[in-house]
């Protein structure tokens, strides 16, 4: 039977197993548009970024040293610093444990930055704290769904 | 919770603290921001347009909260007999919880004043939708829920890449800056945001929807459609205004 | 340093973090290739990855393989964020990663239900390390996770507990664990409100947030370990005697 184009397309679209394939095709087309717009020079990197990264190789906190010291604020380039008057304090804070680690070895930068205090805690908890609220809520919902399905099958 | 924060934060020092940093914005679709609700770098707002969407989402959340679920009736063909499908109590509770979470996520997405925060709320809507439909114990519906879930997972790529491109090309994520200035957001980033929302919201996914809407459990299933329609209207506003 | 590397390999969260660290330090100098900035070069690379992975997704028909491919695709999104090379990008990676992990968890469970893979396996994996190692590894990772605090710490500590529960089995009621995790979440929300309304008390809020997220994430991940039903008279415990004593 001779199929018209519309019938052929709708035959593909009506099958829900083709859903991801169709969507993948759409993404590939958009990505191709992206390549063209890079070639056309439309996408340029803005040098003036928020929270820029500076690297001081001699610092024991490398690559996470952003200045400041415990209870002295560091200079932070936030979007709206006036919305969080205590800005910079969290970045500057180092717990006694972290200061001990610095004296032991210069290679504990990653451990120290995950310890309370530091630039990431400043962004994740304070200036962009709403992101973290949404993020943990997503985790909570996903686990609730998984546990619900799991428990129902147990019975 | 948000109301108390606003009462503390934005009433007294409006002029001296919050007047200068963000110039009041004109969105491309409808009017000026009615108020702002600052959370650090993320400053939420409502315009007349989004306020309408917000009230809509709120109404449907309350409906999901107070209403009893419908029971589908199957009639026996060729006779007078019929039987109603019973919804187990735990499924009902779970679906109601998911529907309310979905409503809250929709309200958050509508109020979002930051592109990355908006994408996170969209992902939130995607996962609550998935929860609502996955609770139904039916092979066809679970099949479709899986297909839709794959789409929702894949859809986070365009969303996050779009937000990252906005940040890279303009140096900011705040809509207060993006809507005002001449900072040009590339077409690529806008397209990515739109197709990301298409994947997360179920409204355009008609193939899966046709199966899923057969599932018992209205009005909770209804929340799936409401949320995806509202978030789609919101992303259109963002993309046009940017 | 060695422990750092070992834990980075164990925990997805820390792995992403160190990856970003090395990435930014590598691209810190300006590289000029055909007059393109290093951001543009990286973006072209990411788009090529998008082509490859989405083409694979288009051709693949098997459900399980498609599920694995979506996880691959999540990583490309993280790459695109990491290209920015700022501290903000590093902070944005964490939510991106969590969304991926969360959706994968829910989707795997849907896949199991959909394919009706609920029958218990007849024999579990039973090797010596599963009797001798769990306690020491769990304690080590728990302590290191508490030191790290926050989300990264939660992931590390949670993985340690997951390993313990998966090897030893448990009779704990997961409902109680979930309740604790709910209170931990409330702790974090309280901390956020303190940050926004009483910024002078930032130190108190910082500690509250760090502990809250640590407890929440650790419990959520360790619950996964209790989901494999090897308690009671599961095969492994009979073979291995009473476990760690």
Concise summary:
The complex is a heterotrimer of chains A (about 160), B (about 240) and C (about 240). Chain A has about 160 residues and is mainly alpha-helical.
What percent of the residues of chain B sit in helical stretches (DSSP H or I)?
55-70%
Globular, elongated, flat, extended or rod-shaped: what is the shape of chain A? extended
> How far apart, in Å, are the first and last alpha carbons of chain B?
30 Å
Say what oligomer this is.
heterotrimer
User: Total helix count of chain B?
Assistant: 10
Most extensive chain contact?
A-C, 68 and 80 residues
Mean pLDDT of chain B: 80
Please bin the fraction of helical residues of chain A. 40-55%
Task: Pick out the low-confidence regions of chain B.
Answer: 1-22
Major sheet of chain B, described briefly?
2 strands, antiparallel
What is the number of independent domains of chain A? 2
Strand order of the largest sheet of chain B: 1-2
**How is the main sheet of chain A built?**
none
The Rg value of chain A, from CA coordinates, equals 25 Å
Total beta strand runs of chain A: 0
